[in-house]
Amino acid sequence: MSASQFGSRFVITTFGESHGTALGVVIDGCPAGVQFDEALLRKELERRRPGHHGSGQIVSGRQEGDQAEVLSGVFEGKTLGTPMAIIVRNQDARSQDYSAIKTSPRAGHADDMWKNKFGHSDHRGGGRSSGRETVSRVMAGSVAQMMMKHVSGPTKVIGYASQIGPMTLTAEERSEVLNKDIDSFQGRFPSSRDSEVAELLKKAQENGDSHGGIAEILIQNPPAYLGQPVFHKLKSDLAMAFLSVGATNGFELGLGFEASEVKGTEFHKNSAGSQYGGIRGGISTGESILLRVSFKPTSSILDVAKKGRHDPCIVTRAIPVLEAMTWLVLADHYLWSKTDRI
Amino acid sequence: MSASQFGSRFVITTFGESHGTALGVVIDGCPAGVQFDEALLRKELERRRPGHHGSGQIVSGRQEGDQAEVLSGVFEGKTLGTPMAIIVRNQDARSQDYSAIKTSPRAGHADDMWKNKFGHSDHRGGGRSSGRETVSRVMAGSVAQMMMKHVSGPTKVIGYASQIGPMTLTAEERSEVLNKDIDSFQGRFPSSRDSEVAELLKKAQENGDSHGGIAEILIQNPPAYLGQPVFHKLKSDLAMAFLSVGATNGFELGLGFEASEVKGTEFHKNSAGSQYGGIRGGISTGESILLRVSFKPTSSILDVAKKGRHDPCIVTRAIPVLEAMTWLVLADHYLWSKTDRI
Amino acid sequence: MSASQFGSRFVITTFGESHGTALGVVIDGCPAGVQFDEALLRKELERRRPGHHGSGQIVSGRQEGDQAEVLSGVFEGKTLGTPMAIIVRNQDARSQDYSAIKTSPRAGHADDMWKNKFGHSDHRGGGRSSGRETVSRVMAGSVAQMMMKHVSGPTKVIGYASQIGPMTLTAEERSEVLNKDIDSFQGRFPSSRDSEVAELLKKAQENGDSHGGIAEILIQNPPAYLGQPVFHKLKSDLAMAFLSVGATNGFELGLGFEASEVKGTEFHKNSAGSQYGGIRGGISTGESILLRVSFKPTSSILDVAKKGRHDPCIVTRAIPVLEAMTWLVLADHYLWSKTDRI
Amino acid sequence: MSASQFGSRFVITTFGESHGTALGVVIDGCPAGVQFDEALLRKELERRRPGHHGSGQIVSGRQEGDQAEVLSGVFEGKTLGTPMAIIVRNQDARSQDYSAIKTSPRAGHADDMWKNKFGHSDHRGGGRSSGRETVSRVMAGSVAQMMMKHVSGPTKVIGYASQIGPMTLTAEERSEVLNKDIDSFQGRFPSSRDSEVAELLKKAQENGDSHGGIAEILIQNPPAYLGQPVFHKLKSDLAMAFLSVGATNGFELGLGFEASEVKGTEFHKNSAGSQYGGIRGGISTGESILLRVSFKPTSSILDVAKKGRHDPCIVTRAIPVLEAMTWLVLADHYLWSKTDRI
After folding, report:
1. Residues contacting C202, CB < 8 A, separation 6+
2. Which domain holds residue A269?
3. What is the total count of domains within chain D?
C-alpha cells in the first residue's frame, strides 16, 4: 500500500501536481472485457469542472477544459485486464498568479505542512494538495462505474448538497431528491431556493468569504453482501474514501450522530429501516446506502494569489468526486466478494 | 491488504471468533528494540473488560478475565523486529446460552449478513462480528503505544464519553476533561452527573433498552507531519480505523459537521485554532488532535440469548478500543514518515 | 506487504522463533466453505519432521512432535472465510544446548547478520532464521492444498531430491518418479541407490560434514491460466517462494540453465514440450510444471552447539516445505484469477 | 499488491501495451529531495534500445527512439515525495506488420495464453507481454539508481552476458569483467571473441534461428543488512524480480546449482567467500552480490510477422533491464531497512 494508492482489488494510483505537466491515474485490477465508455469519462470530467452545471458561475473561474487521454489498457473498446493509464494535461496553469506564494506559503492551506514534511515542495497552486488532484479520482471513478454497470446494472450513485452554509434542504426537499436533476441546480442544492444559494455564494465571493456545507451520497440498489470484516467493513472503507478528500471533516452513515439520541427500542424497531444506512455489521444489505460528508469553509479565501477567484463553497464541486470515490469502493468490494466463498 | 489486516508499516492481522478457541493478533512491522511493557498490555486489556472501571456494573456481565500470552517477537524484554503474536483464550464461552441462535439469526445483529455472505458462519455469540473481536485490537494498540513512548514520549491519547443517550457533557465539563481520571467515572463520562448516567443505563438494562452515544478521542502532543497524501491522510486513516469498530456510524475531526455553519472568515480567523482538529492538509500540525465518533444504540437488546446481559450502551467499552486504534494509526504513520525524505 | 507476509489473495503471515513459545501462521483470505482436513494438516507436519520418512535416521535428531492447534477460522469442519490461526508450541527447546552461542554468533549462520541488522536478536537456535520457521509454511500450505482440492481436484504437487551431494538421479529414475512412493526413500531420493545415500549422509554426519543438493517439484494437472502479468508471473512468484526458503541458492523452470545451450529451432520444435516447464508468458498452460531448486551444503556443521546433531543435507527435509510453498502460490493465483475477466 | 506493481516501499506500477498509445510507470514511495538526473534516465533508455551499444546491429531492427516525459513528482530538479509518472509514447508501431497475427496467435509467444486468460487481448506485437514492456522498468530503475546514489554512493550494478548460445566467458575473462566497458562489446559479452558472437548471432538471424544465454549481475558495495526475513529475503525478492522478466527460466545466487556438488567443509571454509554470493540468511553482508539469470532461446523466430526482424538472442538487451530490476530491489529494501529498529 503506497501513499497515493487506493483499493485492494480494483487498485488505483494517482499522480500529478496542480501546476505540473499532467495529472493522471493508473488503474490496476479492472477485469478484462468491460465496455469502455469514453463518453461517460468525458461527462464525469465535465461534471467536475468548476461552473459547469446549473446556470451560474458560482465556483472558481479557472477553466480547465480537461481532455483525458487513455494511454493503455483499452483495445477495440474493451478493457484488457492490464493497467489502464489515463492522463489529463495541465493547460491553464497561470503560474504567474502563483509566484507570490514562493516565499510565503498560503495561509490556511497545507502548503507549509508539505514544505516541512518533505523538505521540498511544489508551491505553485498547492502542488498535489490542490483540489485539482481530484481529476484523477474522477477518471478512475468513471471506470469503476463502467465496471459496475456490467455487473450490477441497477446500482446508482447520487450526490447532492444538503447544506450550504446556513441553508439546509427541508425534509420535503430531501424526500424529492431522486426526482430531481441535481446538476441543473446551482450549488447542486436541489431546492426551489437555489437562486438564494447562488446569491449567498456570489456575496461570499465578493466579500472574500466562504461557506462550509454537507454533501449527501445515496447509493441506490447496491449489491448486497459487500464489505469485508473486520477492518474493511464497507463503512470504514467509505469513511476513508470520503475523508481522503480535501476540506472534509465529518462522515455519517444512516442516522449518524443523531442516532446517539435515539433509544435502542426505537432505533431498532424497523429492522430494514433507513436508520442503518443500508449497512449492517459493516456489510451492505442491498438496501439504499445513505452517507453524509461535512466540509469546512474553503481556506482559499486567505490566499492572496487567488484574490477573487476562490471557491466560495467546495461542496458543490466535491460531489462528483465523492461519487467517484463511492464507485471505486463499490468496484473494489465487488471484486473482493468474488472470493468470499469457494 | 487482506480483510483482517490494518496498517501499512506497523501492520496487524487479527483473528478469532467470539466463541472459538482463541483470539489474537500478529503484529508485523514493529521495529526491534522497543521495550516490551507487559504491565501496559495487561492494563489495557483490563480497561477493555466490561465493568472494570468506575464503581458500578453497568455493562455486560460477561466476565472475560483475559490472559494475554505472547507467542513470539519478544526476547529478554525487547521486541526483536520479528512478528509478534499475542493471543487470549476464550474461557467463559457459555455456548449453551447461544444455542438458541443456531436456527434463528439474531435480529439487529450482523449474523444473517455473514451467513448470506459466506454461506457458512459461526452463529455462536456473533462469531467474529462480536465485540469480543476488539480484544485483538487492544493488544495490538498497547504495543503501538509502547513503540510511540520510545519515539514520542509526550504523546498521549485520551478517550471519554461526551454523550450517553440524552446526557451530554457541558462545555465546562469538557474543558476539564484533562484533569480527570476518566476511568474512575461510570460510563467514562467525566461529569459530576455520573451517577445519573449509571441510573440511566441500569434502567435501560432492566427495560431491555439501550442507548447510543458519542466518544471523543484527544491526542495530546502528537508528532507533527504525520499523514501521507493523498489517500492516507491522517484523517482518512483515523476515520477508517474508527468506522471499522462495530456500531459506529459517524466521525468528526475538530469542529466536524458544525463547521458547515460557520463562515470562512470566522473559521479561519485563528490559524492555529482547534477548529482544524490538529490536522491540516491531512497532516498533523503537532497541535492536539480532536476526534469524535458516534455509536448507534446497541442492537443486542433484540437478542433473546442475551436477555438481561446486554450492554445498555457500547460507548463506554469502546473507548479503550478507539484509543488502541488511535495508537495503531500513529505508530503506522510514524514509521511511514521515516521515508518522507532522503 | 509486511516482511513475514506472503501472497496477495490467499495471504499468510507467519511468526515464531525457534526457541520461543510457539510458531504459527495466520491465513487471511481463504474462502469460506473449504472442508478442513485436520488429518492432512497432521500428515504434512509429520512429513516435515526430521527422520520421519524412510527407515533411517539421516536427519537432525531433534524430535519435535509438533501438535498443531487451530485457534480460529474453522467451525463445524469448514472454513469460515475469517482468518485461520494455527500454532505449534515449542517443547523440545533444549535451550541449554544453545547457551554457548550467546556470546559467539554461530559461524556460517545468519545469526550475526540478524544481530547487526536489528540490534537485538534471539540467539537461541537461530531464532526466526532457524529452519524451524518452516513449520508455519507447512501448516499454511496444507490449508492451501485443502482449498485447491475443492477447486482443482486432479492437481498434485510432488517433490523429490534429484541430487544429494555427488549422487544424481539417472534419466531412467527420473522418468519413474511418479510411480514411486517418494517418502519411502531415505533422503527422498527415489532410486535403488537410496541406501548409498543413507550411507553418504551418515558418514557426513560422523565427519562433521554436509552436502548440498537439488530438489525438484512437479505440479501435475495445474489449473491453466494462472499467473498475472507483469510482475506476478507464475514463475516469478514461484521463484520468490522457493528462494525464501533457507539455504536455497538457485531456481530453474523447465530446462532452466541448460536451455542456454539449445538452439531456438530445436527448443521451440515442440510447442507443448516440457522444455517450457508448463509456463508460457508467465502463465500456466495446464501442462505439468517442473521446477528445480538448489541448496548449498548445510552450514550447521560449523555450529558447535549442534555438534553431532546437525542435518547433513537439508534437501530431504525441505521437500515438504517446497511443496507447501507451491500450494500457497497455486491457491493465491487461483483466487487471483477469479477476477481476470468480468 | 496489484499485478503490475512491484516493491513494498519504493513501489512502482507499470502500464502500456507494445502497440498502444504509450508505456510508462508511476513510482510511489521515492522520498523527497532526490536529485533528478534526467541524463541518467535518457542514458539508461538508450542502453535498452536495440542495437545501441557495440558497433554492430545484432538485435531487432525496431528503432524505438524512446523519449521519456516526466509528468509529475519532480520540481526544480528534485523529487517531491509525490508519485512520479514517466511515460514514453509509441511511435514506430508498424501495426501493419502485425496484422497477420490477428487470426493466428504467434506460436511460442504468450499470445494465446493471454487470449484465453482474459478473453480479450491486444494481439498487436504481443500487447503487454512484449519485451517492450521493459521500457517502464528501465525508467523506474533509473530513478531507483538516482536515490541509491544519494544514500549509498559506492554501490554499483554491473551486468554482462556470461554465455550466449554455445559461447561462454572463460574464467580469465570473467575475472576481468570489472575492467571492461561492457557496452562496448557486441552482445555485451566482454571477451576478445566478441566478433565471433556477432557472427553467431548474424547467422542465427539469417537462418531464422535463435540462442539462449546467461546474464550475470554483479552488485559492488551494496549496503549491508538489506533483506527482510522471512519471505522478503534479499535473494527471494531478487529472484522474483529477475524471473518476472520475459524469457527467463533460471536464477542463481553465488555458486548456485554448482554448490550442490561441493562438500560443506569445503563450501564454508572461507566465511567471507564469494560462494555465498554476498547474501547470508537472506540479508546482504556488504560484500559483492553475484547473480545469474538464464534465458531460453527467443521464441520470436516462430513469428511470421517478425520475419527477419527477430532478436536472435535476448540476453544482450535484457541486461539493462536486469540492472534496473536490481536497483529497484535495492531501493525498496534500503527504505525498508529504515524501520528495522527503533
Report:
1. C56, C58, C312
2. 5-337
3. 1
- B272 close to A (CB below 8 A): no
CB D133 within 8 A of CB D319: no
By mean pLDDT, which of A203-217, B72-86, C90-104 is the weakest? C90-104
List, for residues D191-236, the tens digit of each pLDDT value: 999 999 999 999 999 999 999 999 999 999 999 999 998 999 999 9
**Mutation to test the D interface, candidates A69, A75, A82, A137, most D Cβ within 10 Å:** A82
ipTM attached to this prediction: 0.94
Q: How many separate helices (H) and strands (E) can be counted in chain A?
A: 9, 14
Q: With an 8 Å Cβ cutoff, is A117 touching chain B?
A: yes
Kindly report the nearest CA distance between residue D86 and chain A, in angstroms.
Answer: 10
CA-CA distance, D235 to D289, in Å (whole number)? 10
For chain D, how long is the longest CA-to-CA vector?
Answer: 61
Is the CB of A15 less than 8 angstroms away from the CB of D120? Answer: no
Asked whether residue B342 is assigned to any structural domain, the reply reads no
Domain of residue D140, CATH code: 3.60.150.10
**Rounded (5°) CA angle B36-B40-B42:** 110
Give the N- to C-terminal CA distance of chain C in Å, as an integer: 26
At B229, give phi and psi (nearest 5°).
-70, 150
CB contact under 8 A, A80 and D2: no
Say whether the peptide bond before residue D230 is cis (omega within 30 degrees of 0).
yes
* CB A29 within 8 Å of CB B245: no
In a domain, B112, yes or no: yes
D contacts of A116 (beta carbons < 8 Å):
none
As a whole number of Å, the end-to-end CA separation of chain B is 26
Q: What are the Cα distances from residue A153, in Å, to A156, A220, B116, D319?
A: 8, 11, 21, 48
- Residue B163 reports pLDDT greater than 80: yes
Cα C151 from Cα A342, distance rounded (Å): 8
Cell of C222: 495445474
DSSP B15: E
d(CA D232, CA D222): 17
- Distance of alpha carbon A301 from its chain centroid, rounded? 21
Complete DSSP assignment for B251-320: EEETTGGGGGGSBHHHHTSSTT-GGGTTEETTEE-SS-EEEEEEEPPPGGGG-GGGTTTS-SBSHHHHHH
**Residue A230, preceding peptide bond in cis (omega within 30° of 0):** yes
CB A102 within 8 A of CB A123: yes
Give the one of C17, C71, C84 whose C-beta lies nearest to B82's C-beta: C17
Q: What is the rounded distance in angstroms from the CA atom of residue A287 to the CA atom of residue B240?
A: 22
- End-to-end alpha-carbon separation of chain A, Å? 26
Q: Is pLDDT above 60 for D328?
A: yes
The vertex-D141 CA angle with D182 and D340, nearest 5°, equals 115
Could A338 and C342 be called an inter-chain contact, meaning their C-beta atoms sit closer than 8 Å? no
- D235 contacts chain C (CB < 8 A): yes
C-alpha cell at C94: 533444549
Q: Is residue C342 part of a domain?
A: no
Residue C147 is which amino acid?
A: M
Query: Comparing C-alpha atoms, which of A278, A303, A273, A256 is closest to residue A98?
Result: A303
Amino acid at site C86: I
* Strand B78-79 with B74-75, pairing: antiparallel
Using CA atoms, how far apart are residues A251 and B196, in angstroms rounded to an integer?
A: 30
Nearest CA in chain B to A165: B261
pLDDT at B148 > cutoff 70:
yes
Q: Per the domain annotation, does D342 fall within a domain? A: no
CA distance C30 to C13: 13
d(CA D215, CA D199): 19
| Cα A194 to chain centroid, rounded | 21
Q: What's the rounded Cα separation, in Å, for the pair B181 and D322? A: 60
Cα separation, B179 vs B162, in Å, equals: 15
